[in-house]
Design goal:
alpha+beta; Helix Hairpins; Heat Shock Protein 90; five-stranded mixed β-sheet; two-stranded antiparallel sheet
């Protein structure tokens, strides 16, 4: 409708100009009409080209909505549509990045779910077997008590795995808000030792502390205590009866360190780069665990701007070093 109105106005103007020119000279009027017709044809061609280009851009947008990833906007880099095409290009680039991230997260969630299912399958099978054995009338009271103790341990491990996975997922989804407060390392280490002291006592492992001065850092005491508790649990598990787990802490002008070391067999050198990977299970070091505690500890520390690294110590044993810097580096 707008184009028809525009053409009608153009024809009226041409007719009026031709009438005026005819008053002076017929050839002048003819020339005016021809020039006006040529201008109208040229205008229509340009308008058609712009319309075709706009329609092609609409088709490209439609292809993007259908997840076509091989569309280029280079042909729109010049002309009236250049600004619009540039903004659409930015939008599609961002959408592709988000789509790739969603696919990655979907794959990660699928693998994590498969890993959890696999990790729970073995203890669940053991639980079912123990429940079947407990009902046997031939069991003595001592045997039944032993089976109940094993059942409790299995259920406790399963509970720990589920809670740890939920906490890890919340941290990775940025759903956890870490507090920033002055954390006293002496008090923090004392709280962390309480969570591992029973296991250490039952296994005959001695937990010692070597704290120099009164070290502090800025962070979240609750989650950091969970991280240290996981590291202590790991150290106790890999220390033989009669061995020692030592927690050392000190502070400098640059950082505050907390080191958890043990007198176990250490970590195979080839596996040190992978020890913090989720569900990584060493042929020797993590063969009896779920492979999630160390990943959880590192996620907590790094989420607060700290560092956590693993190393071996001489003559034997492993050490996990937590470092919180006083300033961002």
């Amino acid at each position: 409708m707008r184009d028809k109105k525009r053409r009608l106005i153009h024809i009226l103007i041409t007719a009026s100009a031709a009438s005026v020119c005819a008053f002076f000279s017929i050839p002048c009027a003819v020339t005016a009409v021809i020039q006006s017709a040529l201008f109208l044809i040229l205008y229509e061609l340009i308008l058609a080209q712009r319309r075709d280009k706009a329609m092609k851009l609409c088709d490209d947008i439609d292809r993007i909505l259908r997840s076509d990833d091989i569309i280029s906007f280079d042909e729109y880099s010049e002309g009236e549509l250049s600004v619009l095409s540039a903004e659409i290009h930015k939008m599609t680039t961002r959408l592709r990045e988000q789509n790739a991230e969603l696919k990655k997260e979907k794959k990660f969630a699928k693998e994590a779910l498969e890993d959890i299912s696999h990790q729970l399958r073995t203890p669940l099978t053991s639980v079912m077997m123990i429940l079947g054995l407990i009902n046997s009338p031939e069991l003595t009271e001592n045997e039944r008590t032993e089976y109940l103790r094993d059942l409790y341990k299995l259920l406790a491990r399963m509970k720990w795995l589920i809670e740890t996975m939920l906490s890890l997922s919340r941290i990775e989804a940025d759903a956890v808000k870490f507090t920033k407060e002055r954390v006293n390392c002496r008090r923090l280490i004392g709280q962390s030792i309480d969570t591992a002291s029973v296991t250490a006592e039952l296994k005959g492992v001695d937990i010692r502390t070597k704290i120099t001065g009164d070290p502090e850092f800025v962070g979240d005491s609750h989650y950091t205590s969970e991280a240290i508790g996981n590291l202590l649990k790991n150290a106790v598990e890999h220390t033989a009866e009669g061995g020692t787990v030592t927690i050392t802490s000190a502070s400098s002008n640059i950082s505050t360190e907390i080191i958890i070391s043990d007198t176990g067999e250490g970590i195979p050198e080839s596996e040190l780069p992978h020890i913090f990977e989720r569900f990584f299970r060493s042929s020797e070091y993590n063969k009896n665990g779920f492979g999630i505690g160390l990943a959880f500890a590192r996620k907590i520390i790094t989420a607060q701007g700290g560092k956590l690294k693993a190393s071996n110590i001489k003559p034997h044993g492993a050490a996990f070093t937590i470092r919180f810097y006083h300033t961002t580096i």
